[in-house]
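Changelog-adjacent note: as of this version, every example in the card shows the full chain rather than a window. The one below runs 326 residues end to end.
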Amino acid sequence: MMNTAALALRDGFIKGVKTGGFLLRIMVPIYLIVVFLRHTPAIPFMQEKLSPVMGLFSLPGDAAVPIVAGIFSDEYGVVAAMNGFSFSSAAITTIAMIILCFHSVPLEAAIGQSIGFHPAKYALYRFLVAIATGIFVGWLATLTLGGSGYAAGASGIIGGADAPAMVMLSTPFGSFAAESWQGILFEMLSGTIFNVVLSLARIIIPLMIFIEFLLVYKVVDRIAPSFRWLCKVLGISGEALLPLLVGLLMGVTYGAGMLIEINKRTPLTRRDFRLIGVFLYACHGLIEATVLFTVAGANALFVCGLRLGIAVLVTAAAARLPRFAE
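Full-length structure tokens:
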């Protein structure tokens, strides 16, 4: 007969595979669509139209390139897009704060919808938070970090020496550079394997095993009293705390996996789901995003501390609105 730890390991692995398969059905099609769109005139056209808006955030017009790229991809796409410019630390910080509120919109909206978050409402919410955050951080960064324009030296962490060969394509939007079809298909295939399947597997399976151990040994029940103050501030129940913390540290995708598993054991209220969505869509993947953008040149205090503070304030305010009551 298997002991408790062995059973938790086995059950956690099985649940990790099942949860990963569920998330992949959403992630893979969206990822392929986003990769394709990045190689069409649609995104360059949007960049051109949005450039004048960048002044609202005390940013140069070129900042539209990484911001638009981030809307359809993730933080790594933003850093890659910044690599071609010499943005100052203030500009990188402002771009990071905007895009961390409003990135990977198609993918994260699909994941959110699968667990009960209304995609259009939360997309609008993220957009408004990104605008407000961008205006505030752009102003604050200009005052404290020496301006939000350009600086000498490269701003990105991804080198450009080995950029793939380009071909010029003519479209109604004008001519633009794009990789060959073979390159695009290779990016789709390799990205699906390495950026989606393997990346998800190496986190979601250990995470589900970790969750199973927490549940079997009732760890959450033991530590819950220490976090009652946080639950009270955010207006959530004790059961909602663990998925919120997982999403905060690891991202919406993994927070969703946690919600799926927790909800099977102890169904959460609509209020909890709404408030978790409000918090996580304002601040998630805190560790990875902070490290990534700090290396790229952003101010760590802004990216980590200010972002977390904004999420707490917005969620606490939302919890006190009548529409979030049962």
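Structural remarks: The chain has a mean pLDDT of 81.
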